[in-house]
Amino acid sequence: MNKFIKYFYAILIFVFLYFPIITVVVFSFNNSRHSLIWQGFTLNWYKILFSNHSLLHVTFNSILLGTTVATVSTFIGTIISVSLFRYKFFGRKIIHVLIFIFLLIPEIIIATTLLVFFNFFEIPLGFWTLFVSHVVLCIPIVSFTIYSRIITLNKEIFEAAMDLGATDFVIFYKIIIPILYQAIISGWLLSLTLSLDDIIISYFVSGPSFEILPLKIYAMVRLGIKPEVNALCSLMLMLTLFTVIINYKSIFKKK
Question: pTM score, two decimals?
Answer without folding.
Answer: 0.84
